[in-house]
């Protein structure tokens, strides 16, 4: 049995209560990099969650961090209305998503902000975050990434919270592990490496899995990433190498047009289309582990 609790927007729950987990997605997201594509409609978010529940979804982990319109105050009611558990995030994305004055205002207290949102709650919402989201760059870690990852590591050591990492086009995972798990002493099992399906480098994927970190294969159905046809082969290779227990799946819906209720694939696609294809490649038992057992372990914390 998995120990600890998963911190959802409705309170801490036993890991076994999560059901099928979309381990990386967004109900709300606003960024100057995506003008006109904001995820900020509460009614559409409710409909998307209901559509996900209708195909068997039990939990959604929202990776939207501080300053990007995560609408934390809306999340408990959405979870109650749809029966889908929601895990919220603290943390900070790449600098390009923020106004310079916002970054400057957090220069001295970033780790304290993360800890506060994990333990006391996100301002004006009462919702406590259940993970820390940070981001690297394309094949590199710039000063902003190192700053946010140091703050994330400090917050992890204070709370035990997992750290989820955006990798630009799936690159830079080993540099992230060197920093977080080497220099900053975060246990690899507390790190979730996002988007690794976007860089079909099986050697890097194997090395990352060997470290003990979780590999999130997320954002399927995106034409510019060509991930769907690569994903089964990569996951089979990792499973055959003994790393089936390191794998997670997510939808990573980041624009309004990508929602299923707006004509896109959305959250249901993960279970409606991706899951059957993976069952054919990996078998039902392994896919059940990836969707249910692994996320229960990845997001469970003995909260400090």
TrEMBL record:
Organism superkingdom: Bacteria
UniProt xrefs under Pfam families: PTE (PF02126)
Modified residues (N6-carboxylysine): 133
Keywords, in A-Z order: Hydrolase, Metal-binding
Keyword Transmembrane helix appears in the UniProt entry: no
Listed PANTHER family: PHOSPHOTRIESTERASE-RELATED (PTHR10819), PHOSPHOTRIESTERASE-RELATED PROTEIN (PTHR10819:SF3)
Family under the similarity heading: Belongs to the metallo-dependent hydrolases superfamily. Phosphotriesterase family.
UniProt-recorded name of the protein: Amidohydrolase family protein
Organism per entry: Streptomyces kunmingensis
Record lineage: Bacteria, Bacillati, Actinomycetota, Actinomycetes, Kitasatosporales
């Amino acid at each position: 049995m998995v120990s600890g609790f998963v911190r959802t927007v409705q309170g801490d729950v036993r890991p076994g209560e999560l059901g099928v987990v979309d381990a990386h997605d967004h109900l709300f997201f606003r960024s100057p990099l995506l003008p006109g594509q904001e995820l900020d409609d509460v009614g559409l978010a409710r409909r998307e969650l209901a559509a996900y529940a209708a195909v068997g979804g039990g939990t959604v982990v929202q990776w939207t961090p501080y300053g990007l319109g995560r609408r934390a105050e809306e999340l408990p009611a959405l979870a109650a209305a749809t029966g889908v558990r929601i895990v919220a995030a603290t943390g900070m994305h790449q600098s390009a998503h923020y106004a310079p004055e916002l970054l400057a205002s957090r220069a001295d207290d970033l780790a304290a902000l993360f800890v506060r949102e994990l333990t006391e709650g996100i301002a004006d919402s009462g919702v406590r975050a259940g993970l820390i989201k940070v981001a690297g760059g394309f094949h590199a870690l710039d000063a902003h990434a190192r700053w946010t990852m140091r703050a994330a590591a400090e917050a992890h050591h204070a709370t035990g919270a997992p750290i989820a990492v955006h990798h630009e086009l799936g690159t830079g995972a080993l540099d992230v592990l060197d920093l977080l798990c080497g220099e900053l002493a975060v246990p690899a099992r507390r790190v979730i490496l996002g988007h690794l399906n976007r860089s079909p480098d099986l050697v890097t994927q194997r090395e990352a899995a060997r470290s003990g970190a979780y590999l999130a294969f997320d954002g399927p159905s995106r034409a510019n990433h060509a991930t769907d046809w690569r994903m089964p082969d990569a996951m089979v290779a990792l499973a055959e190498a003994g790393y089936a227990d390191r794998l997670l799946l997510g939808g990573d819906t980041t624009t309004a047009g990508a929602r299923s209720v707006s004509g896109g694939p959305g959250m249901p696609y993960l279970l409606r289309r991706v899951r059957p294809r993976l069952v054919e490649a990996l078998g039902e038992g392994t896919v059940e582990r990836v969707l249910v057992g692994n996320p229960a372990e990845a997001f469970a914390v003995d909260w400090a």
